[in-house]
Amino acid sequence: xxxxxxxxxxxxxxxxxxxxxxxxxxxxxxxxxxxxxxxxxxxxxxxxxxxxxxxxxxxxxxxxxxxxxxxxxxxxxxxxxxxxxxxxxxxxxxxxxxxxxxxxxxxxxxxxxxxxxxxxxxxxxxxxxxxxxxxxxxxxxxxxxxxxxxxxxxxxxxxxxxxxxxxxxxxxxxxxxxxxxxxxxxxxxxxxxxxxxxxxxxxxxxxxxxxxxxxxxxxxxxxxxxxxxxx
Length: 231
Fold this sequence. Notes:
Shape: globular
Distance between the termini: 173 Å
Largest sheet: 6 strands, antiparallel
Number of strands: 12
């Protein structure tokens, strides 16, 4: 019995050591920051992400999309995909030691994936804002859909990167709305006054004309009387 207890204790210790070893292999985020890096910044300067409950986000604001960015074909682990667009990845700020891209089924990874994330459908010359999300609380949707068991300690190999285009161009509608609202409310009244002005002028002219006619008649009567008295 004592030997059985000793063996059980040894096995339990071995199992515990194995669990600790597995846990220690998990990616440690402590003290690390993450950023978005891509064609828009020459794959150099990171747009630093902010964290909330294990979810990192950043807004990439681009004043004008460059045509050359859209002409580069996306490669998946070196293989052409026939897809074009703005390419980017999430990485540890300032280092390519740790990065995350699109899920590669053949390599079974997003961690240090050799397939960049791709934003399709952008137009050259237009401004755009892209919201990038890096979720370290769950695996990439493509990996989840594929199925299969993954040790929790290895889930960092499948953390997913997603994006959302939140603004594509400067809002023209607001400018039009302001133009319409800025029209003075007194315009109709001004037009009304303008319309009544000719009527006032006509009345004055008519009165003057009557005065001239009466004066002419009076002068004619006087002249007639003078003519009569001479005779």
